[in-house]
Design a protein that fits this description.
306 residues; alpha/beta; five-stranded antiparallel sheet; 8 helices; 9 strands; 45% helix; 16% strand
Length: 306
């Protein structure tokens, strides 16, 4: 009987051990399966991220092709051309893509400030008028002046009887992107936000394209126009873009003067590109500044991928 009892106990222990091993195996299997699912999800997410980024970068290349084709069709740049129409969200397999091209010379070029010539003087005056129209604080405007505008010449400083302000940034440290305005000490975040939609930082001195400038920027460039005259000018260029500055002059109200005709143009060389892509649940955005020189393939001045 003792032997039978021991046998039964041994069988019971073996059964319990087998059950424990089975439970442990089940736990391990679940853990392995969960880890595999996480790994598959990570791989799928990374795959979608790479594909979304590739789509966004492809959109920038496509924009370069559009701008090259546009250069072959004429020298005037205006808002009625194909490049100026945004690409609506276009469905793709498991994703989508959308984007837009903007004429960068339809904005005020803050890097024009650094020159002491007529263009620099006029651009600074436009910027001051723009800042006033957007309610930018005088302290923020003064901070931009100290950081970006060139210091006065020795003669000017002597005539003024005052020491020159802090030196402007040297040419090699010109802002690369307009968003850098927000980093200038003394510029309030609210004021920078009011200015950013209307300014740009280009690597060369550029005139303002009167065919693509927004009404806000046009008002800063043509301060003697009434609001009604400005609205009529904007509506007129939509159906008949300006061909020359003389054309602009002929459509202005009688007696309206243009502050500096040499700082205006009807064509552009710099364009801002924004492309947004989605693949699965992953999104990517590419931004770029293109420089178009004649009919050559446009150059990417800078590019970001987020």
């Amino acid at each position: 009987m003792v032997r039978a009892a021991l046998t039964r106990r041994s069988r019971g222990a073996a059964l319990v051990l087998a059950m424990l091993i089975a439970a442990l195996a089940a736990v391990v299997a679940v853990a392995v399966a969960a880890e595999q699912q996480r790994w598959f999800a990570d791989v799928a997410s990374r795959r979608d991220q790479v594909q979304a980024q590739a789509l966004a970068l492809a959109g920038v290349q496509w924009s370069r092709q559009i701008m090259q084709d546009d250069a072959r069709n004429g020298s005037i740049d205006h808002l009625g051309e194909p490049w100026a129409y945004p690409l609506p969200r276009t469905p793709l397999e498991n994703g989508s893509i959308e984007g837009s091209i903007e004429d960068a010379q339809g904005r005020l070029n803050i890097n024009n400030f650094a020159t002491n010539d007529a263009l620099g003087k006029e651009e600074r005056a436009r910027f001051a008028r723009l800042a006033a129209s957007r309610g930018v604080a005088a302290s923020s405007l003064a901070a931009v002046a100290v950081a970006l505008m060139p210091p006065p010449t020795d003669d000017a400083a002597q005539k003024g009887g005052a020491s020159p302000p802090a030196p402007a940034l040297p040419p090699g440290l010109r802002p690369v992107r307009a968003a850098e305005l927000a980093a200038i000490p003394g510029v309030a975040a609210r004021d920078a936000a009011q200015l950013l939609p209307f300014v740009v930082a280009l690597p060369a001195a550029t005139p303002l394209n009167i065919n693509t400038a927004s009404p806000v920027v046009l008002a800063a460039a043509l301060p003697r126009l009434s609001s009604d005259a400005l609205a009529a000018l904007v509506a007129g260029r939509a159906s008949k873009p300006f061909v020359t500055i003389a054309d602009l002059r002929s459509r202005l109200p009688s007696g309206t003067a243009i502050p500096d005709e040499t700082s205006l143009a009807t064509s552009s060389s710099y364009f801002l590109v924004s492309v947004r892509a989605r693949q699965g649940e992953t999104r990517a955005q590419a931004r770029a500044l293109l420089r178009r020189d004649g009919r050559e393939w446009p150059i990417v001045v800078w590019q970001t991928l987020e």
